[in-house]
Every structure is written in C-alpha cells, then in structure tokens.
C-alpha cells in the first residue's frame, strides 16, 4: 500500500522502506542529513524551488528512485547525497553548484546521462565512482580540479576530454574504466598520479603532452589494448607504470626494438616471477654487444696473422696450412650485431617478450 509523507525540513524518514511519495511544506530551504536514507520504495521526488542545500546522505540507498528534479537554486550537494541510488537513470545538476560533495553520485549504477553546469570548478573525490552505466560525460571548461576516484569503475564510459585548466590527474581517477577507448589530456597537465588509468583495457592510444614531467606508479597498469604511446623521453616514469600492457609490448616487438633492455626496464614491464628470464635476456643482449666489438672478416684474419708473426717462424708447409686455417676462420667470422638481429624473426621477438 502506498505511503506518503510531508517533509518540513526537520523530519528524518531514514530507514522507512514503505515510503513511496513525499511532498514538501512551504518554506523548506534545505534537506537535512540522512533525511531519506534507505527509503528503498521511494520512486520519484521533486525538490521545490527555494531549496538551496541537499545535505550529506540525504537520499542514500533510495534504490527504487528513478527520477529526481533539482531546482536551479540549489548551490550545495553534500557528501554521498545520492549514494547507491541504483535505479536513477538521469540527473541534471543545476547552475549555481560549484562543487559536489565526495561520492555524491557514487554507486548510481543505472545512471546513463548527467549534465554538469559551467559553474562547477571541482569534481570531488569519488563523485561518479561505480556509475557503471554512464557512457559519456562532458566536463565543463571551468573545471580545474578532478579529484581521486572521480570516475572509478565507470566501466561503460567510452571517451572523455579533460579540460585545459586541469593540471593534475589524481590517483585512481579512471581506475577500471574498461570501455574507455579515447582520452584527451591537455597541455596544462604536468603530472599523472598512481593508478590513474589502471585497468583501462580498451584504451588503444594515448598522447602524453610534453609538459607532463611525472607519471607515477601503475598509471597505465593493465591497459592491455594500448598499442600506441607518445610521451617525452625526459618524463619520470614510476614502477609498474606499463605493467601488463601486453599489446604495447607486442607492438614494440613488431618493430624489432634496437635493444632488448629498452623493453625489459623495470619501469615499463616488471614482475618478480620473471626476473630470471630478464637476466637471461640481458645476458643475451650482452653477448650481442660483445659480438659487435669483435673484428670480423679480413680484420679477424689480420689479427691472427699478426699474432703468428710474433711467434716462431714455421716452415713453408706449415705456413700454407695456417693460411688455409685463417681463410676458414675468415669465412666463419661471427656476425656483427645488426646482422645477428636481422637473423632473428619478428615472431621470435614476440615469443621472447610474451614470457615477460
């Protein structure tokens, strides 16, 4: 049986799971903390003109709420105000709001569209975390700060553009945005923090602008579809930054990278379990470097003959035998490094790198 109630601004209906409809008394200017916490049968609500503040946890756990109208006068949306409103499909944040509280829309797993006004300058920590149905969002040009976990586990988000005013991509901001295929990072960004794009497994290409000086630990960990990466050679890269970027490693293999160590560096691809393989391959590279330092062809023959002249003089028959031996040695001179590398097929490079 439907149950209705009137809210005057001081009541709390927290935990009333039978409440289905709410009306507001005249003069209400704010919705208090936990006012409708866990009202799991509430399906729709219209907040009246005159309300300026929605306090923390106001509608948390209203799991049947599918629609809500927020008037233009609202200036503050508190922490976790709509946390786990899992049936909410769309929402418009009114003009005048300049920031949303931490986790304001966290866990709104049916939310497919949201409008952020130009007045917003900060997207707070975890604001849209676990909004797993959100496919697209436009961040206004006025936003200068995107805090950590802002789009954490937005697994349906396919593309996003970070506005020019943002200077720092906080930790875990786009963690496990597994459908994200494209992202634009502006020249204003100077640092990408820990695990910022961890698990963005559909991301195929990214350009890191030259002003970025630091990419922290695990920033692109598990971006398994990434095949194209552009970044400044002077950027500082943290540990495990590109760990499990398997397509990126394979793409490098296709190009026959000039040195094995470029790909084995711990900052690019490191796992304790394969350090012995890394050591073995680096030893292999050392062998190639040694080969390049050795003389080949006629240079090898000249060195051999010089050594012979310093020894005892041999009879003519012996000299002829040595000359024949030297000629054979010339034919079997070790390949130089570039020749050796050309002998290694691309598929073998791929096999070697797949072990890492």
From TrEMBL:
Region described as Disordered: spans on this chain: 291-338
Compositional bias (Acidic residues): 308-323
Listed InterPro entries: LRR_5, LRR_dom_sf, Surface_bspA-like
UniProt-recorded name of the protein: Uncharacterized protein
Organism: Triparma columacea
Phylogenetic placement of the source organism: Eukaryota, Sar, Stramenopiles, Ochrophyta, Bolidophyceae
